[in-house]
Design brief:
Length: 409
């Protein structure tokens, strides 16, 4: 996308090399002027210092005072007014106002005092040159100080222009910050509205659907005649799972309804499931999904809460997929605390080896697939800096393997 000429000019002025290029150009012009119209030692030194000091006006703004002072001294030492002095003096006054080296009133006052001093030196020079110079308080004597007035007006204009540019940029910055805060506030309000909408939907699910499952499953054990003990236990398992889901949904509902940043009692939530709950999870799977086994290798260590929750949810989703795609298959959940602070979690079954995202004939490193369950598991693993692979196992069936590093070795 092309930029406008105005924008390109602003970008060039803002570039770090800009003061060096312009200051160098003015210095070269000053040298050319001094060659064409030689001046005295004081004038020559003043012109060169005033021009060369412009190169440091951005990296060290107070140097602009030297720029202006050297220009005034050079002008006072010679009746000739060099163009380079005019350019460097105006630029120095602008830089003083732009960077607020001093209060604008003090800068203008200092410039006016310097202008008067230069004017007095010129009046003395005119007297020694036998020019008609009226004495002070005589008629026409005030015209001698027209030079002071003009120089003061020029200093005032350059300083005020620099100060106006500074004020405009500060206003622009404040406006940008205010707009950013407004956008952030609007996004926060939109997020809170979305949280409230999700909380309402979740409340309906808890109040109606899940609670109905629990009630119907538990009442079926009393209202259905001729139930076998296995069927009765199955209904009780369904009711227990539904009640457990209701508890977790209510906890999530409380989180959604808690304002962000709230640390009061309303922000307190129930403990999250950890790896200590894997045995209960496997038992639930065994009761409704087929044979299952939990194998733990290594010494149990307390992991950070995020790692514990991620590992539990990955195992929960993998067992759910096993019940859905390989009902009745034998499932093994392996937890290896290992060494080097690496937690390895494997969930494998001896089913037909088809599942969401599986690729028949591929090994456990297969990561293809579009199943939302596998996507969620991979996201949970990536959230804690780990990786997850899923696919056909080396001995058949389906294998989910997660490696979750939880600290430096």
């Amino acid at each position: 996308m092309s930029t406008s000429p105005q924008q390109r000019l602003r970008d060039w002025i803002a570039a770090p090399a800009y003061p060096w290029i312009t200051g160098g150009a003015v210095t070269v012009g000053a040298v050319v002027e001094l060659i064409a119209v030689p001046g005295g030692v004081t004038t020559t030194v003043g012109v060169l210092v005033s021009a060369a000091s412009l190169m440091w006006r951005r990296s060290f703004p107070p140097v602009a005072m030297l720029t202006v002072a050297a220009g005034l001294i050079a002008f006072a030492g010679d009746v000739n007014l060099y163009v380079s002095i005019m350019v460097s003096g105006l630029t120095g006054c602008y830089s003083l106002g732009r960077n607020r080296v001093l209060h604008p009133a003090l800068t203008v006052a200092g410039g006016a005092l310097g202008a008067v001093c230069v004017n007095l030196v010129h009046i003395n020079t005119w007297s020694r040159m036998d020019l008609p110079v009226p004495a002070l308080w005589e008629k026409g004597s005030l015209s001698l100080f027209a030079e002071s007035f003009l120089l003061t007006v020029v200093v005032f204009g350059a300083v005020m222009m620099g100060d106006a540019v500074r004020s405009r940029e500060e206003t622009r910055t404040e406006r940008s910050l205010a707009q950013a805060k407004l956008i952030a506030m609007e996004r926060q309000q939109a997020a809170e509205a979305e949280r409230a909408a999700i909380a309402r939907e979740l409340h309906d699910i808890v109040s109606h659907s899940v609670s109905m499952i629990a009630v119907q499953a538990e009442s079926a054990t009393y209202t259905t005649p001729g139930l076998t003990p296995e069927a009765r236990d199955g209904f009780q398992q369904i009711a227990g799972t539904a009640r457990s889901s209701m508890a977790e949904l209510r906890r999530l509902l409380g989180v959604l309804r808690t304002p962000p940043g709230d640390t009061g009692p309303a922000a307190l939530t129930a403990p999250q499931p950890t790896l200590d709950h894997l045995a209960e999870l496997v038992e639930q799977h065994r009761a409704v999904g087929g044979p299952a086994e939990l194998r733990i290798t290594g010494e149990r260590v307390a992991l950070p809460a995020a790692w514990e929750l991620s590992a539990y949810r990955i195992a929960q989703e993998a067992l759910t997929n096993a019940r859905k795609h390989a009902p009745g298959a034998r499932t093994v959940v392996e937890v290896d605390y290992g060494a080097g602070r690496l937690l390895t979690l494997r969930v494998r079954d001896d089913g037909p080896g088809t599942g969401p995202g599986s690729d028949p004939g591929s090994g456990p490193d297969s990561v293809a697939g579009t199943g939302h369950g596998l996507t969620g598991m991979r996201e949970r693993a990536a959230l804690v800096g780990g990786r997850l692979t899923a696919g056909a196992g080396p001995d058949g069936g389906f294998l989910v393997e997660a490696e979750l590093p939880w600290g430096s070795g």
